[in-house]
Each structure stands twice: as C-alpha cells, then as structure tokens.
Amino acid sequence: MSDSHLTFCFLSSILALIVITFIFTKRKKPSLNLPPGQMGWPLLGETIGYLKTYQALTLGEFMEKHIARYGTIYKSNLFGEPAIVSTDAGLNRFIMQNEGKLFEASYPKSLGGVLGKWSMLVLVGDMHRDMRNISLNFLSYAKIRTHLVKDVDKHVLHVLSSWKHNSTLSAQGEARRFTFNFMAKHIMSLDPGKLETEQLKTEYVSFMKGIVSLAPVNLPGTAYRKALKSRSTILKFIEAKMEERAKRVQNGDALEEDHDLLNWVLTHTNLSNEQILDLVLSLLFGGHETSSIAIALVIYFLPSCPRAMQQLREEHVEIVTSKKKTGEVELTWDDYKKMEFTHCVLNETLRLGNVVRYIHRKALKDVRYKGYDIPCGWKVLPVISAAHLDPELFDQPNQFNPWRWQGNNSKSDNFMPFGGGSRLCAGSELAKVEMAVFIHHLILNYNWEVLDGDEPFVYPYVDFPKGLPIKVQSYSSIKLPN
Ligand code: HEM
Ligand SMILES: *[C@@H]1O[C@H](CO)[C@@H](O)[C@H](O)[C@H]1NC(C)=O
Ligand SMILES: *[C@@H]1O[C@H](CO)[C@@H](O)[C@H](O)[C@H]1NC(C)=O
Ligand SMILES: *[C@@H]1O[C@H](CO)[C@@H](O)[C@H](O)[C@H]1NC(C)=O
Ligand SMILES: *[C@@H]1O[C@H](CO)[C@@H](O)[C@H](O)[C@H]1NC(C)=O
Ligand SMILES: *[C@@H]1O[C@H](CO)[C@@H](O)[C@H](O)[C@H]1NC(C)=O
C-alpha cells in the first residue's frame, strides 16, 4: 500500500468518525423543544415573583401574566433549578399518574430538614409506599366510619360550645384549635385543653413558621433555626410518650388508648423512633393546617351567599329532625352521607379556595407532552389550582356557586384539590368529614358575619391576614318543622 493510500484511509476514517459522532450526538440530543418562558436572574430565577403574595381567589399576577404570554405550559427557573410550570389539567393528571415512572415528588431540601427525612412528603419509592400504607391504615374508611365521625363530632362541639352569643372571634384560630385537638387526640391521645397539649401546640406553631419561612437558612434568629429547635423539642415529647407506653406494656397494663396512631405503630410496625416522629410530624403538618384553612374558607364564603346558607340549614335541620325520631344523638357515617348539598359546598370551597396551589415534582426521564420536551432532572410544578379557576372548565369560575356540583359532574375530572395518583392526599376523606361536621353544628347553632373585610391571601400557603374575625349570633331558636 502506498503512503497516499494510507493517508487517504486515515483521513477518511477520521471523517467517518466525525460524521458518526455528529449523527450520534444528534441522535442522542435532538434539539429539545422546550416550552416558552424565561429563566430570569441567575440563581434566583423568577422565584421571587412566583412566591409573591396574592389574593387567594385568583391565580395571582405572576401566573396570569405568564399564562397570557407563554400559554399553559412554560419554563422558568424556580427554587434554584430550571423548572417546567404546568397549568394544563391534562399534563397535571399525566404527571400524577406517572409517579415513580416518569416523575417523582421532589420537595425543597429545607422541607426535609424540618419535616425529617422520613416524612411522607419527601420520601419516594418503597419507603414512601410503606409509610403511606401505615398512614392509610390510620386514616382508613373503616376507621372513619366506625370511630372518626363520632370523634370529629365531639371535637367540633368542644370548640363550638365555647362560642358566646354576640362575641367576636377568630374563625381561623377556632378552626385550628379544632383540627389540632382532633389530630393530637388521634395521634397520641392528648386531651384538649391539657397543659401538655397546649405546650405541644406552641412548639408546633413555631415549627410551622419555619416550614413556611421563605429563607430556609440555619442561622441564629431565623424562623428556620427556631423550627429545627422545635422539631427536637417535639421529638423529645413524643419519645417520652413512647417510653411511657413501653413501661405500661411491661407492667402488663392494657393500653387504654387502643386507637391512637402511636400505639398502632408501636405494635404493628418496626419503625424507629425517628421514623415515628417524622410520621407524626407529617400527619400533623398534612392534616392540621390544610383542613383548618378549608374550614375557615367555608366560614368566609357562606355569608356572601345567603341562598346557600339557607339550603344548608334546611338540609341539616332535616338530618337532626330525623335523628330525633329515632332517638339517635351522635352523628354517624350515614348522616354524613346524607349531606348532599353540603358536599356541593365542600367541593365548591375546595375549588375556589385552593388550599394547596401546586405540588413539587421532578422529571425522571426526558418526557414529551403535546410537542413540548420536559428534560430529565428538571423540576416540574403542576399547578393544580389553575384548572379550578379556568373559565373553559368552570363557568364563571370566580363565583361561589355550590349548585354547579349538582347533577352533572362531567367536569370533576379536572377537579384535583387533593392531588392524585399514588400520592393522592391520604387524609382527603377525613378532611371532608371534618369540614362537613363543622358545618353541621355551625349552621345549626350560629349566624355569623365576617368583620374587617378580611380575605384569604396566598403567602404561598393560604392564610387570612387578620385570622378571619367573625361576629357570631347564636341561633338557638331554630324553627324545627313538625
Ligand atoms: C382540605 C384539606 C386538605 C387538602 C386540600 C390536602 C391536599 C393534599 C395534596 C394536594 C396532597 C398531595 C401532595 C403531593 O402530591 O405532593 C396531599 C398529600 C397528603 N395529605 Fe393532604 N390535604 C388535606 C388534608 C389532609 C388531612 C386532614 C390529612 C391527614 C390527617 C392529610 C394528609 C396527607 C398526607 C399524609 C399526604 C401525603 C400522601 C403521600 O405522599 O402519599 N391531608 N394532601
Ligand atoms: C399494608 O398494611 C397492611 C396492614 O395494615 C398489610 O396487611 C399490607 O400487606 C401492607 N401492604 C403493603 C404494600 O405493604
Ligand atoms: C347583641 O348585640 C346587639 C348589638 O350588636 C344588641 O342589640 C343585643 O342586645 C345583644 N344581645 C345580647 C344578648 O347581648
Ligand atoms: C419486624 O421485625 C421482625 C423481626 O425483625 C419481623 O419478624 C417482623 O415481621 C417485622 N414486622 C413488620 C411489620 O415489618
Ligand atoms: C366532589 O368532587 C369529587 C372529586 O374530588 C367527586 O367525586 C364528587 O362527586 C363531587 N361531589 C359532588 C357533590 O359533586
Ligand atoms: C352532562 O354534561 C355533558 C357535557 O357538558 C353532556 O354531554 C351530558 O349530556 C350532561 N348530562 C346530563 C345528565 O345532564
């Protein structure tokens, strides 16, 4: 072979290599069709605008402007990562149904810091499944039917019976008192009003403040540092409870609090103390703040719609009247099931109030949806509230109109206040029972008006800046039909 031939071979193989490499990289990384959007400032991205406070009955200026400019799916840079924001109900459902396959939960690290690494919100995979199974056992339909309705009833009455005629009180504070008392009782048999319950509540409040603080840095004086301190105080509290239980078992004492979560976990699982703490905290976190704000929202919406108030009152008077005939006193699961119009009010409150605005996910693979690419590893934020306020899906979405839920529910596919898929809210039924039973006693016993024009805002958690002050009139002279 001649030199020139060798050189030719050499050159042509290099050329081939270049061509192959080019094709290969082209194949491997086809030009991505990312959704439109802007990445904002370095590091901060658009996070500040995204988290800016806005009125809770809207999607907020940031979201509205971005949707108008870019459409329902857009890219951004949020919480320090490139992100896809989805306000598309179809994509949101797709994301939730592909949990663990194409997407998985991915909450900011700071949340894991205070809630704990075993918290259900941050766990994924098998460990999430096991913890979820334990929670579902605690929150199962069977338990709600046999025990929880009755206990919810008792705790609602405990709070409402302290309301004085003509007094002014914070509806949100009262709703929190009710949901905290109920959860503390069911998790570790703490009784309302006792010193230890009040102490735990105080710690819990400081713990919550850290979770929702915007600057999750562990520096002296910050809410985040205080939350970490509260976390360890609460851990000690729960450990003391567990030791007490263990001692009683040793002494052969039957545990009277048979039905609480702590007992169930101690006798049915092998969870470590730390895992139990994180489970307790995630149930308190998931179950206290959310359902209390949902109750406050009902109290806020109803006075603006006297017709709904009237129809609710009729429904609940009828339930009480028919119970009187059979001599039954306590509310039951059957009563709850009879509250048809109440269920419309619950759905409408969750639709318009949007207690949880969006959830945190990340893409596990490159995903293509409606022609857009979602790159592997990117943050994905399904905005579940967007569909609820979409005029294409809900006629006059800004109106509180419980009647829209009557009869035809063809739109309920787009209604996802509790998320969906394998991470669907574990407490959704309990939350509805809490709301319905609260409404039952509230509407039968009181009239109320909202004071000071308080209204809900998104901070990004939903809250009433003044605590929703209301003036209550007791409604003792209910005219029962004969
Ligand atoms: C109106 C009240 C409530 C709303 C709007 C709500 C909403 C949600 C949403 C949207 C999720 C999904 C989070 C995600 O996919 O990343 C969730 C999860 C969860 N919720 Fe709720 N929730 C409420 C009440 C409750 C209550 C009363 C409890 C329990 C006592 C509870 C316990 C949980 C738990 C344990 C999870 C995690 C489930 C999992 O990861 O498998 N929630 N909730
Ligand atoms: C869930 O818990 C129940 C006991 O409450 C158990 O029988 C079942 O096997 C568990 N399922 C999974 C998937 O761990
Ligand atoms: C309740 O307040 C109204 C005025 O706000 C007053 O007229 C009425 O007498 C008060 N009733 C009682 C029982 O205090
Ligand atoms: C707990 O551990 C013991 C021994 O390690 C095992 O026999 C038992 O099945 C475990 N129980 C559960 C619920 O995992
Ligand atoms: C309320 O919404 C749920 C979906 O979360 C739906 O299954 C139910 O039928 C709705 N209830 C009413 C009364 O429309
Ligand atoms: C419910 O609504 C859908 C679409 O809006 C319509 O096709 C269907 O006929 C309606 N059903 C009833 C019972 O009104």
UniProtKB/TrEMBL annotation:
Q: Which Pfam families match?
A: p450 (PF00067)
Report the cofactors. Answer: heme
InterPro entries recorded: Cyt_P450, Cyt_P450_CS, Cyt_P450_E_grp-I, Cyt_P450_sf
Which residue spans traverse the membrane? 6-24
Query: Where does it localize?
Result: Membrane
Q: How does it sit in the membrane?
A: Single-pass membrane protein
Its Gene Ontology cellular component terms are: membrane
Q: Which PROSITE patterns match?
A: CYTOCHROME_P450
Gene3D superfamilies named among the record's database cross-references? Cytochrome P450
- Keyword Ribonucleoprotein present in the record's keywords: the answer is no
This protein's UniProt keywords: Brassinosteroid biosynthesis, Heme, Iron, Lipid biosynthesis, Lipid metabolism, Membrane, Metal-binding, Monooxygenase, Oxidoreductase, Steroid biosynthesis, Transmembrane, Transmembrane helix
Q: What's one GO BP annotation on this UniProt entry?
A: sterol metabolic process
SUPFAM superfamilies to which the protein is assigned, alphabetical: Cytochrome P450
Which sites bind heme?
Answer: 425
A molecular function (GO) held by this record is: iron ion binding
Annotated catalysed reactions: cholesterol + reduced [NADPH--hemoprotein reductase] + O2 = (22S)-22-hydroxycholesterol + oxidized [NADPH--hemoprotein reductase] + H2O + H(+)
CDD domains per UniProt: CYP90-like (cd11043)
Which family is annotated?
Answer: Belongs to the cytochrome P450 family.
Q: What is this protein called?
A: Cytochrome P450 90B1
Provenance organism: Phaseolus vulgaris (Kidney bean)
